[in-house]
Design a protein that fits this description.
The chain has 64 residues and is mainly α. It contains two helices and no strands.
């Protein structure tokens, strides 16, 4: 192979590498949902804590 041919292949390879990395690092898009949603979020409501749970420290809760 001649030196100019290897340089051309190197430039083309570098260009393809940059092109692929640009598409791989692009912003992600969410999949289409079943129906229209206004606001785009979900609200989850958790049940209240048991009556005896008020005396626990934050360290004990974090350990669990």
């Amino acid at each position: 192979m001649s030196r100019s041919w290897r340089s051309t292949l190197g430039v083309v390879g570098a260009f393809l590498w940059v092109l692929v990395s640009a598409f791989a690092a692009g912003p992600a898009q969410a999949a289409a949902s079943d129906g229209p949603h206004e606001g785009g979020g979900h609200t989850m409501v958790m049940p209240p804590a048991p009556p005896g749970a008020r005396g626990h420290s934050t360290r004990a809760v974090a350990a669990v």
